[in-house]
Amino acid sequence: MMLTDEELLTRFANPREREFAFTQLVKKYQQKLYWHIRRIVISHEDADDVIQNTFIKIWKNLHNFKGESQLYTWFYRIATNESITFINNRKKRVVVSMDDTDEHLINTLKADKNFNASAAEWKLQQAILMLPEKQRIVFNLRYFDEMPYEEMSKILDTTEGALKASYHHAVKKVEDYLINH
Amino acid sequence: MKQEKNNNTEDTKLPDMLRALKDKETFSVDSSYFHEQEERIRTEIWLMNQQDRTNLPFQVPAGYFDGLPNKILNNIRSEHSINGTITKLLMPVYAAAAILALLLASFPFFSEPNLPVTILTYETISDDELDDYVHHIIPELSTESISQYTNVSDNHLSSSLQLELDEETLLQMDIDADEISSL
User: Fold this and answer.
1) pLDDT in tens, A41-65
2) Could you say which of B57, B65, B71 has the minimum Cβ distance to residue A52?
3) What's the DSSP call for residue B57?
4) Which of helix, strand or coil describes residue A147?
5) Chain A interface includes B79 (CB < 8 A)
6) Residue A37's closest chain B neighbor by CA?
7) Is A117-181 the same fold as A1-97?
8) Is B73 part of the contact surface with chain A (CB cutoff 8 Å)?
9) I need a labelling partner for B78 at 20 to 30 A (CA). Which of A41, A142, B2, B170 fits?
10) What is the second-level CATH architecture of the domain A117-181?
11) DSSP state at residue A4
12) pLDDT tens digit string along B70-89?
């Protein structure tokens, strides 16, 4: 039986059980966080880098977790920030403008051997990649993960109203893209 | 939070002692417990559903998630050991830097030694030095100023000063005869 977050946190506080507790936490949340990261950074190699950085950051800061939010919300927040930082760093290194960023992500998707899409799925992904970064994250969290706005609000530090508006705009843009392409 | 109780008629038939104990709240939980529990269960269910979802068209290499926890843990361990090694290597450098800082901080004490203090005694002080000192602390007053303050005329003042300098007084001051005669 999987241990609860509280039990794992208690065990993590004990140096002798720290690695065991952490491994359990990774096992519990790795897939969720991986797919969230993957949808932002697109390629498997990049997602692999980002998820490792995310969990290393979690390891270093878990003792500071005060339990003011749920553990997975806090994990998502770290994963989102790590992904955005990764994208921004790559922007500085590789590309200059926003259009180039979209293009770069689409090219990454085309080249990714771990991406096997039907024509419709490919079109949907292209439409999503056309969205501004924050809007893309909101769309992914709501559309794919079906995350409640309340949780999203804690992760992205944005009001529920703003998130609903953002998602509404994103859906409209994706719909337009699918109709016109 | 208190557990709600049914007002059962059976209770009235219970012996007093048992009835009294029945009303005691032995167990309790935080007021937010049930709300949090509900949220926790909802999250667990949501997470389980997410785990079962396929994420097509995205894929991962076979066995990727099986190896990920160990890969992360190894990264953490190696980062720890690298940090440990760096700290060990830097230890002598830190020690040398601390000693150097200490030496640099104490440098002014060696390069600017404390100035020797000259203690002036009545045996070593020259007349000029004594004059300077006295004039420094006592403003120079003319005989006119003194007479103005004391309401004593110049002649009286000089005679009174003369009076104080009689031989007997000077003798009491333990001044030798030669010095008295020179006065």
Assistant:
1) 988 999 999 999 999 999 999 988 8
2) B71
3) T
4) coil
5) yes
6) B58
7) no
8) yes
9) A41
10) Orthogonal Bundle (1.10)
11) P
12) 999 999 988 877 777 777 77
